[in-house]
Amino acid sequence: MIKPFLFLKTTGTKGRGVFTKEKIGPGTIIEESPVIVMSADDRKLLDKTLLHDYIFEWGVDKDKCCMALGLVPMYNHSYASNCEYFMNFDEAIIQVKTVREIKEGEELTINYNGDWNDEKKVWFEVGA
Q1: Can you name the CATH fold of 6-110?
Q2: What is the pLDDT of residues 58-79, one digit of tens each?
Q3: Burial code of 71-100, b = ≥16 C-beta within 10 A, e = fewer?
Q4: Where are the domains of the chain?
């Protein structure tokens, strides 16, 4: 399930990102997407490819990885993101939910560290 008001657009500095055509209230589930779960051995191979930047650690022990389908891989990172994501290991899905009101035309972001306001450094340099 992807809300119909979401769309992809090229940003000035971060490549493509997810945006909204309308205002969204806080606590709104905007996407629920299935994932393809892969092994730790698969992760070693994926880490040598461009997909490294689009996969998520997976499992309680983070001993697997997954590729999310839908728009999930396209949300850009922010240390103070306006959305958060939840992993359902039993159902093999990732759910994205807003943490505050989002304006029409605003980019939707997640924090790649897992918690929407986690300021731990990520593996790449964060631009403007």
Answers
A1: Beta-clip-like (2.170.270)
A2: 999 999 999 999 999 999 888 8
A3: bbbbbbbbbebbbbbebeeeeebbbbbbbe
A4: 6-110
